[in-house]
Each structure stands twice: as structure tokens, then as C-alpha cells.
Amino acid sequence: MRRHVLIFGIVGGLLIATLQYTEYRFVVIEHSVELYGALIAVLFAAFGIWLGLRITRARETIRETVVVREIPAQAPAVEPFAPNTASRQSLGITARELEILSLVARGHSNREIATQLFVSENTVKTHCARAFDKLGAARRTQAVQRGKELGLLP
Amino acid sequence: MRRHVLIFGIVGGLLIATLQYTEYRFVVIEHSVELYGALIAVLFAAFGIWLGLRITRARETIRETVVVREIPAQAPAVEPFAPNTASRQSLGITARELEILSLVARGHSNREIATQLFVSENTVKTHCARAFDKLGAARRTQAVQRGKELGLLP
DNA sequence: CTAAAAATCACCCAAAAGAATGACGACATC
DNA sequence: GATGTCGTCATTCTTTTGGGTGATTTTTAG
Q1: How far, CA to CA in Å, does B118 sit from each of A141, B94, B113, B122?
Q2: Separation between Cα atoms, residue B104 and residue B124, nearest integer Å
Q3: Cβ atoms within 10 A of the Cβ of A77, count?
Q4: What number of other Cβ atoms are within 10 A of residue A112's Cβ?
Q5: Closest Cβ opposite residue B69 in set A43, A82, A105
Q6: How many CB atoms lie within 10 A of CB B41?
Q7: What is the DSSP string of A76-91?
Q8: What is the nearest nucleotide to A99, using C1' and CA?
Q9: Nucleotide nearest to A119 (CA to C1')
């Protein structure tokens, strides 16, 4: 959070510096204002996207405590799977760990998972390691197997 | 979380103010290039945030419909399980390959499988590689997943 | 506000897994 | 006898995983 401001400050400072520089450099020589504008545009667009993603990601984690409600459950059609919260909590497996675990179970590599969740591969590995530890698994295939046994995975 | 936006707004405002200030200070030119730049900057930043929100919204809605029912964590009744011979043969997967595959699915390592079947680890790897190829899998977890989808594995 | 829990990331190292070859024998079948 | 499939094994090399440790940041709970 403080880092965001810091980064923003730095970028802003650089931007201003660039502004002044380009002012002296280009404007006098009547260079393209469009290029200059486009540069800032791209810069800020990228920053905006990044910020937007960050914001929504924060909101998603809050959302986690949502719906767990009983339902008639008569249609086994496309079985909407709900992980067994009891065994999950008794093992101390966090929601995030389970999320990664389910992606592992779908056959994704750590790198793929990292890309998909917008985190670093190292983070995925950390989550994996902790989940494996809590499940008493030495391999991901074993973890998946255990997870299914415990009703944590579909 | 929403503080991000707030801070972003404030800093943005400050930036614009600064730009205008520097304009009065430095500019001897008729248009304010900075103001122009800042304008697109803000515009694109907003666009970026909007885009970020939009990108993640799709994922969120999916996530929301997920949780519906708890599943009893009890093991499925001891069913014999007969592997689907049709899809097995149509893929050209041999019995031996399926045998190794099922051990992979149970979470065993190549070495363990090799020991268990009295063959070399290299042999296991070969069988694995061929099975993965026939299943179109790049990883063992993926192969297991596909195998279950196809009814080859319990 | 503060303390605890969770999530994030980095680094190093070792082990496992996988890809790409090539090879050899057993066996069935035509 | 030639052919083809299958199971077996080796070698080399690259990638992926996993273990261990420590650190920072964010979130949550009290």
C-alpha cells in the first residue's frame, strides 16, 4: 500500500522530469506533441490497468466469505462442487491454498497457475508446499489424491 | 482498497495542480502541453481502471455461482471399477501403460512404481511418456485428470 | 490500534519428472 | 521369415517440483 504511493510518486516525478525535459528539448524544436501525449497515455493506461487489477483482486478475497447455503440439490446434472469445509478447516488449509490445489488437480503447472492468478511462481510454490505439508503429501499427484479423498476436490 | 482510488485521485489532482503551476512558472508557450498531457493521462488511467475492473468481473461472477452444497466426506462405496476399454483402445493405450498410469494417479513417484513393478525407473518413464503422449498431457497431473475424464481411472 | 494469520515474493539447492533418442528381445501374425 | 507391437532399458539434457529459510506486506480479528 505504501509501496503503491511510493511507486506512484516516483513515476510521477519521472513524468514531470520528462515533461520538463521534453518541453525544452522538443517543443522548442516544434516536435510532435502527439508522440509525447501517446507516451503518457500508454504509461498511465498501464498504471491504471495494474491498479484496477489490484483493486479487484483485493475485493475478491473479501468475497470469499460468501455463500454457503443449502439447496434442494436434486439435479445432479452439472454437480456444483462445494469443498468440504470441515476437513479443510480441521487441516488448517486456507482458501487460497485450496484454490491453488484445485488448479494443480486440473493439471496445471506452477507457472500456469502463477500466470492465471497474477502472482509469482514462487508464491504458487509456497502455497503448494504448505498445502502438501498439511495434507501429508510429498508430491502433487499425492496431494490431489488426498484432496479428493477428503472431499476437498471434485 | 478503496483508498487506492482515493489516493490515486488526490495525487492525480495534485499532479494537475503541479502541472499548472509549472506552466505558470516555466511556460512561455501559448498552449499548455502539460495540461493536455495530464488530461489524457487521467483519461487513460481511468480507462485502465475501468478495463481492469471489467477483466476481473467475468471471473468474479463465475466464482459467485460456485458454492452450493456441502459434500459428505465419506469415501465412495467400494466399487470395483472397470476401466473403459473403448476409449482406452481408441487411444491406443496399452494395458501396461494404464497400469503405470493408475499408479501415478495414486500419487506414487516413478521410483516407487519401478520398485513396485520390478522394472527400472527408465522403463516407467518411457511408459509414462507414451501414455502422456496418447492422452495429450504434458504433466502427470494432467494425464491423471484426462484419464479420469475418459473413465480410464477411478 | 495492535497482534496474529495469510498472502506474497525471493533465493538456493536437490530431487524428480519429462523430452528425445536409440536399442534389443519376446511374441504374435501374416 | 518378415513385420509389427509391446515391453524393456540406457543416456543425455532440460524443465519442473519440492524443501528450507527468511522477509515483507496485506488482511483479519481482538
Answers
A1: 22, 18, 8, 12
A2: 10
A3: 6
A4: 17
A5: A82
A6: 27
A7: -TT------HHHHHHH
A8: C7
A9: C8
The residues near A23 (Cβ < 8 Å, ≥ 6 apart) are B26, B27, B33, B34
pLDDT in tens, B42-69: 666 666 656 555 544 444 433 333 334 4
The DSSP annotation for A83-144 comes to --HHHHHHHT--HHHHHHHHHHHTT--HHHHHHHHTS-HHHHHHHHHHHHHHHT-SSHHHHH
pLDDT in tens, A51-107: 555 555 444 443 333 333 333 444 445 667 666 788 888 899 999 999 999 999 999
Residue-wise pLDDT for B74-88, tens only, equals: 555 677 766 678 888
- In which residue are the cell numbers 465412495 written? B76
Give the type of residue at A12: G
Query: Which residue out of B3, B25, B44, B128 would a mutagenesis test of the A interface target, given it has the greatest number of A Cβ atoms within 10 Å?
Result: B44
CA B5 to CA B8: how far, in whole Å?
A: 5
Report the distance separating Cα B153 and Cα B60, nearest Å. 32
Residues 6 or more apart in contact with residue A39 via CB below 8 angstroms: A18
Q: Which residue of B has its CA nearest to A43?
A: B41
Q: Decide: residue A148, CB within 10 A, 0-12 exposed, 13-18 middle, 19+ buried.
A: middle
C-beta atoms of A80 and B72 within 8 A = no
φ/ψ region of B118 (left if φ > 0, alpha if ψ in -120 to 50, else beta) reads left
Contacts of A147 in chain B (CB under 8 A): none
Helices marked H in chain B: 2-26, 33-64, 85-91, 95-105, 110-117, 121-135, 140-149
Q: Which residue has the cell 470395483?
A: B80
